[in-house]
Amino acid sequence: MQKLLVSVVAIIALVAGVVIFNSLPKPQPQALVYNPPRALEPFMLEGHNGSQLTNADLTGQWTLLFTGYTSCPDICPTTMADLRKIMPQLTSFTERDVRVWMISVDPKRDTLQKLADYNTYFGKEFMGVRAEHKNLYPFVNGLGLMYSIPSEGETDYLVNHSSAIVLVNPDGERHAIFKASHEAGQLPTVDMEQLVQDFQLITQQYN
């Protein structure tokens, strides 16, 4: 009788523990997560390997998209180096491939060859992407990002652009956006440690 009572108490304690655990608030990503994820408008861009990229090229993988350009003096190379550094962690959280698209916002100067040289330096997961402004601007704007277009005739210029990173899920949908922090005297860059934590949570919750 005593053994039965102990067993019943143990079962009750286990059930109570499960109920309490399930009622606890679950960790949530700090990134802006779209619920439901948002479809991307049809697009056609160029990959640095000469391929034509469409919506289908964003399916079946997790893709991090950000705007940049090869002549960028600070934010772009910093972001690329940081993403290369955390790539092993990101790939450990999912069985799907993880890719990075650097979307050039300087089509005037960024040829496919320049993009190929720039992106392949960081690794096989990195793809340089370009298009002329008529196709590029709607795509970038649709991601919730922005960039400036230099005046006609300018040759030596900087391009102002968003520092945020957009996450596209394996269904090719805009799933989340990792915003950059803005601190006085510091480059507006994404917190990569937080991105890693958020990516793990997002991939765990993804169906």
UniProtKB/TrEMBL annotation:
Any single Pfam family the record assigns to this protein: SCO1-SenC
Cysteine disulfide partners in this protein: 72-76
GO molecular function list: metal ion binding
Binding site for Cu cation: 72, 76, 161
Sequence ranges assigned to domain Thioredoxin in this UniProt record: 34-201
Keyword presence, Secreted: no
Parts forming coiled coils: none
UniProt xrefs under Gene3D superfamilies: Glutaredoxin
Keyword field: Copper, Disulfide bond, Metal-binding
Domain of life: Bacteria
UniProt record similarity statement: Belongs to the SCO1/2 family.
Protein name, as recorded: SCO family protein
Organism from which the protein derives: Pseudidiomarina aquimaris
